[in-house]
Specification:
Length: 74
């Protein structure tokens, strides 16, 4: 039910780091991180190659609630 979904985010938004190749559509996701500061720390220390760019995304955007999509059919 809806209550289950809410409980995932009770302690605040969690984040993932998305590393995307600037030319190719290659995407890798790293996480889960508790806040943006942890994400920044990870990016700085991971030594990503220059041809990749990193973005920080809230977990609930990367991982949408599937139940909402199903509701639109009714």
């Amino acid at each position: 039910g809806m209550g289950d979904v809410v409980s995932i985010f009770e302690k605040g938004t969690q984040y993932v780091v998305i590393s995307k190749h600037k030319e190719h559509e290659h995407i890798a996701t790293f996480g889960i991180f508790e806040d943006k500061q942890e994400c920044d720390h990870f990016i700085e220390n991971a030594g990503f190659p220059d041809e990749y760019e990193q973005k920080i995304a809230p977990l609930n955007i990367v991982w949408p609630n599937e139940e909402e999509e199903n509701d639109s059919r009714s």
